[in-house]
């Protein structure tokens, strides 16, 4: 499917069995899987964040019926000055912005913050020399959370949101 969608091609599209199989897999993935659920304040939350060179994104998750489901999504494009931030600054910005966005759900209880950027695991316990990260670290003190490292392949929702390039 990627080859069919890449660039503008002149002439008719050649639809192969491989394309049909890929299309069917995409259709199945979109019609099942983790369905968005309403937030339940009696259950703990998890937050996943990610940043790319063009945007930041986050997803609020909860376990329902033994499976983790998204309850809310948020993303936005980076401002021109933010695109010049270092990777750790963009990842930290994603955390601060996402937690602020979901503040009404997260203020009253402890939650898990999951990030694929390992150095940020120590944001609440280390002193950074970077003034911007220190300032953001102080703003995170109002939240009760534990940080969990997450493999990049498991951070699908936040990764897609950070690359979507739109304000949502």
UniProtKB/TrEMBL annotation:
Reverse transcriptase RNase H-like domain: residues covered: 40-143
Top-rank lineage group of the source organism: Eukaryota
Any one Pfam family match given in the protein's UniProt record, by short name: RT_RNaseH
Keywords: Endonuclease, Hydrolase, Nuclease, Nucleotidyltransferase, RNA-directed DNA polymerase, Transferase
Entry annotated with the keyword Hydrolase: yes
InterPro entries: DNA/RNA_pol_sf, RT_RNaseH
GO MF term (any one): hydrolase activity
The name this protein goes by in its record: Reverse transcriptase RNase H-like domain-containing protein
Organism whose genome encodes this protein: Littorina saxatilis
Organism phylogeny: Eukaryota, Metazoa, Spiralia, Lophotrochozoa, Mollusca
């Amino acid at each position: 499917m990627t080859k069919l969608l890449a660039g503008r091609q002149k002439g008719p599209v050649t639809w192969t069995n491989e394309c049909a199989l890929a299309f069917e897999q995409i259709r199945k993935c979109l019609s099942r899987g983790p369905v968005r659920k309403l937030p339940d304040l009696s259950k703990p939350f998890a937050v996943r964040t990610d940043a790319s060179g063009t945007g930041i994104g986050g997803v609020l998750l909860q376990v329902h019926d033994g499976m983790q489901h998204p309850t809310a999504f948020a993303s936005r494009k980076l401002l021109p000055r933010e695109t010049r931030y270092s990777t750790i600054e963009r990842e930290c910005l994603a955390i601060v912005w996402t937690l602020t966005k979901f503040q009404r759900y997260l203020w009253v209880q402890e939650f898990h913050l999951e990030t694929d950027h390992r150095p940020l695991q120590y944001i609440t316990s280390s002193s950074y020399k970077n003034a911007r990260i220190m300032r953001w670290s102080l703003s995170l003190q109002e939240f009760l959370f534990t940080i969990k490292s997450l493999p990049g392949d498991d951070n699908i929702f936040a990764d897609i949101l950070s690359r979507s390039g739109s304000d949502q």
